[in-house]
Amino acid sequence: MTAILECVPNFSEGRHPDRIRQITARIEAVSGAHLLHVDPGHATNRTVVTFAGSPAAVVEAAFQAIATAAELIDMRQHTGTHPRMGATDVCPLVPISGITLTEAAEWSRRLAERVGRELGIPVYLYEAAQPDPARRNLAIIRAGEYEGLAEKIQRPEWRPDFGPAVFQPKCGATVIGARGFLVAYNVNLNTTSTRRANAVAFDVREAGRPRREGNPLTGKPVMDAAGQPVMDPGTLKAVKAIGWYIPEYGVAQVSMNLTDLAVTPVHTAFDEVCRSADARGLRATGSELVGLVPLSAMLDAGRHYLRRQQRSLGVGEAELIKIAVKSLGLEELAPFKPEERIIEYRLRATDARPLGAMSLIAFADETASESPAPGGGSIAAYLGALGAALGTMVANLSAHKRGWDDRWEEFSRWAEAGQALKDRLLRLVDEDTQAFNRVMEALALPKGTAEEKAARKAALAAANRGAIEVPLEVLRAAAEAFPLLRAMAELGNPASASDAGVGALALRAAMRGAWLNVRINLPGLGDQAAGAAMLAEADALVARAEADEAGVLALVEAQLTR
User: Fold this and answer.
1) What's the pLDDT tens digit per position in 341-383?
2) What is the DSSP letter of 108?
3) Are 299 and 274 spatial neighbours (Cβ–Cβ below 8 Å)?
4) Integer distance in angstroms from the first to the last C-alpha of the chain?
5) What is the tens place of the pLDDT at every residue in 426-454?
6) Structural domains present in the chain
7) In 3-state terms, what secondary structure has residue 222?
8) Are 50 and 77 in contact (CB under 8 A)?
9) Helix, strand, or coil here: 228?
10) Residue 185 near residue 108 (C-beta atoms within 8 A)
11) How far is CA 96 from CA 9, 176, 412, 502, in A?
12) Cβ distance 425 to 392 under 8 Å?
């Protein structure tokens, strides 16, 4: 899985669009960093920028943005309603997919060290990047703000983690760290009462509500020994919530910040608000996501609601998202467009998988054209994907077969495994063509001087290795799909036995095709030992495929002759 990191820096500038554009232009100039959103505020005199991409690109873009902000913003003249202590006030890195919070924290420390060293800006670490628990909270770090920084930075306990322990009047200090993805999520209620919406919010939010003597609404607040209100916690962890009325919609909402989706995912928050609302004579009618959301949050919600319906979870990504949108009521107030609201979809390059995005007719026409790619390797991968897809279809049909209700989880597990193999093989359709193109590029390199010949030879060897490794991966993935076809031929819906048989035929053809592609690329590898090992693996896999295919077809024949 490709690692995707998000960065959400807050700059102390919201009143001069030209300055904001200069900062965002530096972000967009970094290859691999994708600007997603710019939200300036005049009253706060602050702009929140969101961009994402590969970790290295995001960190480079963040550095360039911080450097630009330090050039353009003069904190000595800054005023605004939002707390702040520097030109780049805070710069969190947020793991989206393919990267852990621990890894994101390490990237943030690298960024902080570079900012301190090259730009001379005092940097404080926060959240997951900060090893000292007493200095993890942003509000504590920022206490005293810019105006109190000159005195604060001199105290030993507030020495910066990176950069000079010297007050920088023009740019102030910056807070850099890593945190989990924060989802702003609102649930709509069938009421206009802010008080009732607040009651639900207090039920569910982690902080809960103040404990009172006697009457829970009007009783005297209970205080602890330190004179602070005693709180009765709510039912959801990592959730902040408040109730409010939205005149634009004509309804009250429970407005939540979900600060850790691993603790409380979107669907859990929605279900709990529904439960609390129902207990108070209210009803949750739908919900809205504010801003962008990770793909995993939508897929998890889709699986959750399918599981509650006792339906197979082994459906495609688009279907899971559709189930999530319907179940959460995300289109009650406005259309929910996955391509605009899901981070990974916003980052997905339109030409990243050109073959995978084609229609069946366009793919066949492209294959039939005079271009040598896509060729046999891509077709072999696609045949494998079709074989896995047929096995997945039989599993899904079996999970929903009348009278087999108690077996839905068994077939759901098979369908999920089949979906994963299908997706893996579909990716290899494009990867095979990309591998072929790299061979062509290497062949086109100059070969005049001795150095050019050596460089060309090395590039060809690397490209040919890739051209062998892709069909080898097709062989492995297709081989892993045979147990699915065997199980569906033997245990699945008898009415779909022929589909399992066709799936096995497709897998065998895919494996023989991939085997041919391994062999034709071996001479260009230039490494006899590695080539022999690759060929031995390919030979063993394709030989086993013959027995696997025969086994599935025998089971299909037994079903057909009953």
Assistant:
1) 898 888 875 445 688 888 999 999 999 998 888 999 999 999 9
2) H
3) no
4) 45
5) 999 999 999 999 999 999 999 899 999 99
6) 4-178 (3.30.990.10), 183-347 (3.30.70.670), 360-560 (1.20.120.680)
7) coil
8) no
9) coil
10) no
11) 16, 17, 27, 39
12) no
β-strand 46-53 against 4-7: which pairing, if any? Answer: antiparallel
Rama region for 509: left / alpha / beta (φ>0; ψ in -120 to 50; rest): alpha
- Three-state DSSP class for residue 71: helix
Q: Give DSSP secondary structure letters for 404-463.
A: -GGGHHHHHHHHHHHHHHHHHHHHHHHHHHHHHHHHHHHHTS--SSHHHHHHHHHHHHHH
Give the number of other Cβ atoms within 10 Å of residue 385's Cβ: 27
Phi, psi of 542 (to 5 degrees): -70, -30
Output the six-digit token pair for 91.
């710069």
Strand partners, 23: none
Contact 377, 474 (CB under 8 A): yes
Is pTM beyond 0.90 here? no
Tokens (6 digits) for 1: 């899985």
Task: Tell me the backbone φ, ψ of residue 380, rounded to 5 degrees.
Answer: -60, -45
**Helix, strand or coil, per DSSP, at residue 522:** helix
H-run or E-run covering 140: helix 138-142
Is residue 267 within 8 A of residue 300, CB to CB? The reply is yes
Q: Residue 408: which residues within 8 A CB-CB, separation 6 or more?
A: 310, 311, 312, 399, 400
Number of residues that make up the chain? 562
Structure tokens at 137: 């909270």
| Residue 66 contacts residue 150 (beta carbons within 8 Å) | no
Type of residue at 6: E
Q: Label the pairing between strands 88-97 and 174-178.
A: parallel
Catalytically annotated residues = 82, 432
